[in-house]
Amino acid sequence: MKAHALAIFLTLSLGSPAIAGFSLPAPVRHPNDPKLAGIVVVSDFHLYDPDYSFDLIKDPVKRESEKLKAAKNLQAYARMLGAISDQPAVTNVIMNGDILHAPTLVKLTDEARIERMIDVLMQMSTVLNKPLYFNFGNHDVTMEMKGTELLEVPGFAQKFEAALNAAIEKQTATTGRTPIIRIIGVGEEGFGKYRTVYDITVGGKKIRISHAPFVSTNAIADQAKLFEESNPRAFTKVTAPHRLTENPEGILYIQSDSHTPAADAKLGVYNTGMLTVDDTVPFPEPTFIVLDGEASGHFTFARDATQPLLSYRIPTCPGLFSP
C-alpha cells in the first residue's frame, strides 16, 4: 500500500474530501477545542511522499510500522489544521521546518520535491487563512556528503523560492485570492541552511528562530533528563547549545528538530515539539506552540480527534507524562 492510498483511506474515514495535489486530508476539529489567540508555531510534520513504495522496506514488521506512522502523521496534520482554523484571534502561523519525511523523497527530483512542499503550504494558507511563515528544516532541503559532513546542496532554497512565487501568482490569477506565504531568511546570509538563526518580527513580537536548537536554559536541561536515556540525540540537541540565563529584550526563542516540547516560559525559550510519530521520546501526542503573552505555551491533542486541545508542559517528575 502506498502513502497516497493511506491518505485517501484516512480522508474517507474522517468523512471529509481530500484537498490539494496529493490527497492531503481535510482539517479535523473537536467541538470542545478552546479559543486560541496570538501566533501559532508548528513544525516537524514529516508527511510521507504519496508515491513512496513501502515495498522497498524488506523487514515486514518495520514496513507495517512505517505505514502506520505515515497514516498517523497525516492524522496529526489534519487535526492540527482543524484545531487552529476558524480562530479569529490567531494572527499568524509559523511552520518551522520538516514538512515532508526525507527518507521517502530520495527518488524525487528537486522540482517534484518542491511541488509537494508547496502543496502543503498552499493548503495551510487556504484552510487557516492567516499569514504563513515558513522556515527550512533539514528534511526540506536536499543534502549531500562533503567529506565527513552532510551539507545542504547550494541553490535548492532559491529554486523553492522561485517556484513558490510562481505558485502564488498562479493562485492569484486563478482564484483572485493571494496566499500570504513568506519564506524566512530570503536574501540573508545562510538562507536555506536549516541551522541558520534569523531575527524576525511577527505580529509585533521579536522572534529569534532556527529549525535546529541553538539555545537552552537550566529549566530545559532539567526537563531533558526525562529523555536522556530514551533519546540521547534529543537530549544533546536541547542541552548542548548556548545556555541562556537572562532575556532583558523579551525575545522569543523558537527552535525545533528535537521532537520535544521542552520549554522555559520565564526566559521565552521554546522547542516546538512535533506532529510526527517518534517512538524515542516519551511524549506520544502531537504538540504545537501558541505565543500569546503570559498565555504562551504548548498545546497537545489526540491524533484521532477524540480529545480537545489541552495545554501541556513537560513535567519535572519522571513518569508523569500526562497533560
Overview of this structure, please?
- By secondary structure, this protein is of the alpha/beta class.
- It has one domain (38-52, 91-312): Purple Acid Phosphatase, chain A, domain 2.
- Helix content is 28%, strand content 19%.
- It is built from six helices and 16 strands.
- The protein has helices spanning 3-14, 60-84, 110-128, 156-175, 218-224, 232-239, and strands at 38-42, 90-95, 132-134, 143-146, 149-152, 181-183, 198-202, 205-210, 215-216, 242-243, 252-255, 263-264, 269-271, 287-291, 297-300, 310-312.
- The strands form four sheets. A seven-stranded mixed beta sheet has the order 6-3-2-1-14-15-16, with helices on one face.
- α3 (110-128) links the parallel β2 (90-95) and β3.
- The longest helix is centred in the first third of the chain and has 25 residues, at 60-84.
- It is globular.
- Residues 1-21 and 319-323 have low confidence and may be disordered.
